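Re: the 200-residue chain
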Amino acid sequence: MMPARFLLAAAFAVAAGGAAAQEAARLDPDWPCVQRKVPTLTPAAIWTGPAIEEAGDWRDDEEVRELVNLLSQRRVPQDEAEATIESFAEGLPAEERSARLTLLFAGLFDTMNAERSEIIEGIERYARHQKALVETIREQKETVEVSPVGTGSEAEQQLFWNLRIFEERRQSLPYICEVPRLVEQRLFALGRAIGTVVSE
């Protein structure tokens, strides 16, 4: 068991860190990342091809739907995804090429933009849980502070574990905050690859 004085010092550090994070995110208290939050993307920021609003419903095209499901998965290497796009384009009749490739981008945009928004919402929930945990730690710290010397071991143990959970979550935050950017980067790259074969 850690000494109470160490736990109290750690609790103060947690509280200070929480306050600093809140100050840094004062414009959006639920956003804990250093990256600027962009809740949703727009096609115009990514796509320079034909208007996707006029492409129709990509879900009605079975082949496009299957490609969207495949290419939107980040586990599929980027070079493999781009090769799949080229192969798909090569097999299309000239009169269908632009329309169906635009449909493919529309499906990828809908799917990956929705995924990215869900990830952002998850990060915000994560931040709210961390704030709630800080409040719990503060309350437990006060309990430990007023406990007579040599007592309060249960409160100290609870404080220790909550501090540990908080710190583990805090350390994982930079990696979590990168995920929306990774989805965005992949969508940009796929859009560029599709745009290239559309213009050929």
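The helical segments are 4-24, 62-71, 78-90, 94-146, 153-199.
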